[in-house]
Amino acid sequence: MVLIESGYTSFDADIHKLNEIDDPTGRYTRALDGRFRGLGGSSSRWGGRMIPISAYELGPRPDIAQPAWPIDTEMLDDYEREIEAIFQIDNSPYDNSGSARVDPNGLFPRDEKHITRRWAKCPDYRNCNVATLLAKQLKDLKNLDIWLGATVCDFSLDSDRGRLRGIAAQNLNGNTLSIVADDFILAAGAIESTRLLHLLDAKSEGRAFAGCHALGRYFQDHLKAKVATINRRNAHLTNRLFAYRFVNSTRRDLHLELSEHAQRQDASASAFAYIAMDLASSPLADLRQFLRGLQKRDVSSRQVLQLLGNGGFFARAAYWRYAKGQVFIPEDIDLGLMVCAEQLPVAANRIRLSDKDDRFGMRKARIEWTPTYAEEHTFRTTIRHLDFYWRNSGFDRFCPLKLTPAAENAAIPIIDDAEACAHPSGSTRMGLNPPDSVVGPDLRCHAVPNIAVASSSVFPTAGSANPTFTIMKMALWLADSYLGGKVTPKAVLEPTA
Ligand SMILES: Cc1cc2nc3c(=O)[nH]c(=O)nc-3n(C[C@H](O)[C@H](O)[C@H](O)COP(=O)(O)OP(=O)(O)OC[C@H]3O[C@@H](n4cnc5c(N)ncnc54)[C@H](O)[C@@H]3O)c2cc1C
Question: Cβ atoms within 10 A of the Cβ of 442, count?
Answer without folding.
Answer: 13
